[in-house]
Design goal:
The chain is of the alpha/beta class. The protein has 24 helices and 17 strands. The strands form 3 sheets. It has a 6-stranded parallel sheet with strand order 2-1-3-4-6-5, with helices on both faces. A 6-stranded parallel sheet has the order 13-12-14-15-17-16, with helices on both faces. The protein has a 5-stranded parallel sheet with strand order 8-7-9-10-11, sandwiched between helices.
Length: about 600
């Protein structure tokens, strides 16, 4: 049957009604296309502009599960957590107007952190677009700067192709968020629909593969380097390049330092790992980059939280930049060698090329770096990560160490943003990719709890812990209701210091202790709040209570919240002042 013009369902009986009713409406086409893309879960919140879609979701409830959130920001963060834990495309569904604007933080977060999600937004009927209709916003215009692509679907016949293209774009190349804006009359319109059996995109034939000439040039530079450093980011995780990275680093005995987003892409406890670099990175990692003669940057964008003052970042190093997105290469730091390719394919090609040079040449290259490794080990011994103990206050660093001990280092950790995020990054060694989910580029408070819920859906009975601060927790704690309703047994660990901790630290260190509007002394009783939502709540206020309280929360079968009251004015160290030189990092000198 050929496609008919868009037509709304007739309200009165007519000879055309039977023929019309044989054609699905746009909302059904949307659901069928999502199912064809393998979607089994949607996080969303209904409203007037998406009622046709929700009607079809109810009819398809045996094939696709909708998770009712308590705020649209939570829906998108859950989709992000789902995507980050699984490697699949997460899906959120929100209504027009405030639904779309509430989702904006999550969309921008996914864009900054290269997370593949598709966000479906409702829109007012097409004749009303531009009239300031009830709950109308220009969703396409608002999201244009923070999406990989967006669509306003004006013709129901375009709906299925747009969905398929959106999923392809979200998950290929550098992943990212896609927004599909659907006017209400389009979701109501009927047309013919054929379920596609083979979906292909001819324009993907030009996907970049590692250029053999550049691979050879990079391999030669690496073999000749005396002080190389592998600087790896979220691109390693997104591309599934962890095994290739491990083989490459071990084959040449190269030191590895991950970014915040790259944690887990290389085992934190591996002898070759210098741990995280950047503003709150380790002394050894930052010094290594400062002294390196070759920086092998894989799946990174030279973010300011890593580089500090860009002009002084790795001043002695030639740069090899490997990234799938050509827009990232040279954006902040011009490389001497650029390789536009998938991280996994690029690392595999480099290792193959280096092996072709022969084991004798590899041995010479490794031997050439013996003095370099002696310096690296000296830096590690000189300034390891450490903190001072306390007999009467729970130190936040000790909370993370105890969490690591009790979980055997196997839990998936999702965090909010702030001091607790940095302590988790520093003191919870990660074993594998997709074990660490955090808001990196945007730094969105409120991310941790909903992201953990999305991840828990993927991982089933495996342990998922949201490490949050008392500030960020209060932005999205209503999503505890979602976790309880759908029996998604996340564990929430609150680092409760009664402050907006990271802001307070900056005010202490750089604003003469002028603690302006950071006091959270008036906060709810988090144990009672958790119980009100139907979750298990428990609290520790003294060091001797910590282990027992964490064990009780982690072993609880359902949703659990552990309120850990930590020392109020503890600071994150090391710290490189914003815009500073990594050599100027401030390290903590007391305690062990």
């Amino acid at each position: 049957m050929s496609a008919l013009p868009i037509a709304l369902v007739p309200k009165a009986e007519s000879p055309l009604l039977d023929l019309e009713m044989q054609q699905p409406r746009g909302a059904e086409i949307l659901i069928e296309a999502l199912i064809q893309e393998g979607v089994d879960s949607i996080f969303g919140y209904p409203g007037g502009a998406v009622l046709h879609i929700y009607d079809e979701l109810w009819r398809a409830r045996d094939r696709i599960t909708h998770y009712l959130v308590r705020h649209e920001q939570g829906a998108v963060h859950m989709a992000e957590g789902y995507a980050r834990a699984s490697g699949r495309v997460g899906v959120a569904l929100v209504t027009s107007g405030p639904g779309a604007t509430n989702a904006l933080t999550g969309i921008a977060n996914a864009y900054m952190d290269s997370t593949p999600i598709v966000v479906i937004t409702g829109q007012v009927p097409t004749p009303l677009i531009g009239t300031d209709a009830f709950q109308e916003v220009d969703t396409v215009g608002i999201t244009r700067s923070c999406v990989k692509h967006n669509y306003l679907v004006r013709d129901v016949r375009d709906l299925a192709p747009v969905v398929h293209e959106a999923f392809h774009l979200a998950s290929t190349g550098r992943p990212g968020p896609i927004v599909i804006d659907i006017p209400k009359d389009v979701s109501a319109a009927r047309t013919s629909f054929s379920r596609l059996t083979n979906i292909s995109f001819p324009f993907t034939d030009g996907t970049a593969r590692p250029d053999p000439r550049v691979v050879a040039q990079a391999a030669t530079a690496i073999m000749q380097a005396e002080r190389p450093v592998l600087y790896v980011g979220g691109g390693v995780v997104n591309s599934g390049a962890a095994s290739a990275l491990l083989a490459f680093a071990q084959g040449l005995q190269l030191p590895v330092t991950p970014t915040l987003m790259g944690l887990g892409g290389f085992p934190s406890v591996h002898p070759l790992c210098l741990n995280m670099l950047g503003m709150h990175g380790t002394y050894a990692a930052n010094m290594a980059v400062a002294e390196s003669d070759l920086l092998i940057a894989v799946g990174v964008r030279f973010d300011d939280r890593v580089t500090g003052k860009l002009a002084t970042f790795a001043p002695q190093a030639r740069v090899i930049h490997i990234d799938i997105d050509p827009a990232n290469v040279g954006k902040n730091r011009a490389p001497e060698i650029s390789l536009i390719a998938d991280a996994r394919e690029a690392l595999a090609a480099l290792l193959e090329k280096i092996k072709s040079m022969g084991q004798q040449e590899i041995n010479k290259s490794v031997q050439r770096r013996k003095v370099w490794w002696e310096r690296l080990r000296a830096w590690q011994l000189e300034q390891p990560l450490r903190f001072s103990g306390s007999a009467d206050q729970i130190k936040p660093q000790s909370v993370i160490r105890e969490l690591h001990r009790l979980t055997g280092g196997d839990a998936l950790i999702a965090t909010d943003v702030g001091q607790h995020q940095m302590w988790a990054a520093q003191f919870y060694p990660f074993k594998r990719s997709r074990q660490w989910i955090t808001s990196g580029g945007l730094g969105a408070m409120g991310f941790g709890v909903p992201a953990a819920i999305g991840a828990q859906l993927v991982l089933g009975d495996q342990l998922v812990v949201a490490v949050v601060g008392d500030g960020g927790f209060q932005m999205t704690n209503q999503e505890l209701a979602t976790a309880v309703q759908y029996n998604l047994p996340i564990k929430v660990l609150i680092m409760n210091n009664g402050y907006l901790g990271m802001v307070r630290q900056w005010q202490e260190m750089f604003y003469d202790r002028a603690y302006s509007e950071v006091d959270l002394a008036v906060s709810p009783d988090f144990v009672k709040l958790s119980e009100a939502y139907g979750a298990f709540g428990v609290r520790a206020t003294q060091p001797h209570e910590l282990s027992e309280v964490l064990a009780a929360g982690l072993s609880h079968k359902g949703v659990a919240v552990m309120d850990i009251v930590v020392s109020k004015e503890e600071n994150v160290f090391p710290i490189v002042p914003a815009g500073g030189n990594s050599r100027d990092m401030i390290v903590q000198s007391e305690g062990v």
